[in-house]
Design a protein that fits this description.
130 residues; mainly alpha; 6 helices
């Protein structure tokens, strides 16, 4: 069962094909977490170009999650759970940035900033604009 879930989440195109908006958003966030694990491996290997590609994939997963939840406005409980998970992703990005070599920190920092902006947007969806 776990292997099936991982195989489905590995490909962002398969995530985009999910018809259920809540499942699509959650799988997009799962995809971002998987890419973060890959980025952690790449920082220890020193592959800067591969790290940039993985950083783009993390951002794509986060963007897809926020975009999907903006289409499913009435699912605030699911949005709040995703917001909590996104906050966890941001904390992990902070740790990765601190642990990464100096020359790779800028790439991770840009993803972290984008994740924070997405977190704010998701909070606006949950709480509504005031």
């Amino acid at each position: 069962m776990t292997i099936l879930v991982l195989m489905l989440a590995l490909d962002l195109a398969a995530v985009k094909a999910e018809p259920d908006l809540v499942k699509r958003a959650n799988r997009a966030l799962d995809y971002a977490f998987e890419q973060l694990a890959e980025a952690r491996k790449l920082t220890s290997d020193g592959s800067a170009e591969a790290l940039k590609k993985t950083a783009e994939e993390i951002t794509a997963g986060i963007d897809l999650m926020v975009e999907t939840f903006s289409q499913a406005r009435r699912r605030t409980g699911d949005m709040k759970k995703a917001e909590i998970r996104l906050h966890d992703l941001i904390r992990r990005l902070e740790t990765l940035r601190q642990d990464a070599p100096f020359d790779e920190r800028a790439v991770i920092e840009s993803v972290e900033k984008r994740a924070r902006a997405s977190n704010e947007k998701l909070l606006e969806l949950v709480m509504g604009k005031r």
